[in-house]
């Protein structure tokens, strides 16, 4: 049975973005402070948003914290969904799906089996998880091609790592996932050389597997540290409707805390850092065209 897009908060937000030609800031949040700062920024900008958690944060703070994120985001006066980014191990994926079964269900999850050597292995490993997630009502993002980067990752992309449109179509048909993170020259972490994106490839992927095609998938842009504003807008024009943002907002918040923690009252120091986080979220809502759309 095909997944019911209309019942899923993440997909409803992305559907509206695709129809309106703007992108959603999928903002990494590491703690209650960043979740609340994201919600405040989204409400102030009248923008939809996605709150993204990493598996490490779920493991660190537990199910009650995930429930807090869901409650806080779902109670906002603008549409905000909660997504799990890069769940790559059986432990991380199963934790999220078990908790969903127990009533603490994220809106969507990235099931990342892209570390396997072949696409066949990627499909075989991911498929049971994708099916279980969809049964539980979670929309699923998958990755095809190999995104370079990460802690000790490589810094250059060779052609073989790029996502091929025909493969993407087959991959999505076999997996039945709703979002695809392609490799188009994007890198996780710092870009040593200026980013060289294959925008023609993004455009081709959008016309092959994007909304309205038989795959009907949303393309997700990972690896956005250091990107110039013009490259963000170039990607949005070509169909990247979910854009992951991490260190842009995290770093100014943490820098503020590091600088002021020894001197100030703790709630005030927290507040100052949250204001820094909000500023960055608002900048991206404006840049992505989502401000005023909720
Ligand atoms: Zn990523």
TrEMBL record:
Pathway: Carbohydrate degradation; glycolysis; D-glyceraldehyde 3-phosphate and glycerone phosphate from D-glucose: step 4/4. It catalyses: beta-D-fructose 1,6-bisphosphate = D-glyceraldehyde 3-phosphate + dihydroxyacetone phosphate. PANTHER family: D-TAGATOSE-1,6-BISPHOSPHATE ALDOLASE, D-TAGATOSE-1,6-BISPHOSPHATE ALDOLASE SUBUNIT GATY-RELATED. One of its GO terms (molecular function) is fructose-bisphosphate aldolase activity. Belongs to the class II fructose-bisphosphate aldolase family. Its EC number is 4.1.2.13. GO terms for biological process: glycolytic process. Catalyzes the aldol condensation of dihydroxyacetone phosphate (DHAP or glycerone-phosphate) with glyceraldehyde 3-phosphate (G3P) to form fructose 1,6-bisphosphate (FBP) in gluconeogenesis and the reverse reaction in glycolysis. Its cofactor is Zn(2+). It comes from Kalmanozyma brasiliensis (strain GHG001) (Yeast). Binds 2 Zn(2+) ions per subunit. One is catalytic and the other provides a structural contribution. InterPro entries: Aldolase_TIM, Class_II_FBP_aldolase, FBA_II. This is Fructose-bisphosphate aldolase. It holds the Pfam family F_bP_aldolase. Keywords: Glycolysis, Lyase, Metal-binding, Zinc.
């Amino acid at each position: 049975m095909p997944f019911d897009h209309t019942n899923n908060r993440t997909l409803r937000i992305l559907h509206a973005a695709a129809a309106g030609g703007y992108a959603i800031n999928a903002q990494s949040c590491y703690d209650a402070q960043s979740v609340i700062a994201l919600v405040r920024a989204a409400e102030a900008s009248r923008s939809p948003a996605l709150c993204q958690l990493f598996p490490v944060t779920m493991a660190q703070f537990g199910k009650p914290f995930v429930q807090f994120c869901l409650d806080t985001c779902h109670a906002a006066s603008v549409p905000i969904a909660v997504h799990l980014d890069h769940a790559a191990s059986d432990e991380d994926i199963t934790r999220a799906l078990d908790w969903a079964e127990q009533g603490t269900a994220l809106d969507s999850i990235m099931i990342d089996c892209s570390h396997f050597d072949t696409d066949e292995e990627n499909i075989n490993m991911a498929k049971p998880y994708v099916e279980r997630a969809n049964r539980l009502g979670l929309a699923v993002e998958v990755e095809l091609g190999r995104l370079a980067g990460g802690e000790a990752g490589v810094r250059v992309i060779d052609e073989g790592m790029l996502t091929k449109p025909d493969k993407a179509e087959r991959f999505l048909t076999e997996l039945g996932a709703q979002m695809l993170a392609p490799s188009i020259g994007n890198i996780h972490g710092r870009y040593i050389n200026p980013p060289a994106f294959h925008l023609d490839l993004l455009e081709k992927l959008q016309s092959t597997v994007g909304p309205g095609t038989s795959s009907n998938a949303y393309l997700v842009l990972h690896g956005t540290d250091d990107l110039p504003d013009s490259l963000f807008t170039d990607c949005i024009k070509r169909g990247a409707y979910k854009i992951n943002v991490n260190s842009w907002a995290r770093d100014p918040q943490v820098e503020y805390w590091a600088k002021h923690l020894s001197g100030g009252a703790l709630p005030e120091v927290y507040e100052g850092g949250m204001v820094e986080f909000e500023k960055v979220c608002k900048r991206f809502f404006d840049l992505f065209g989502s401000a005023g759309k909720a």
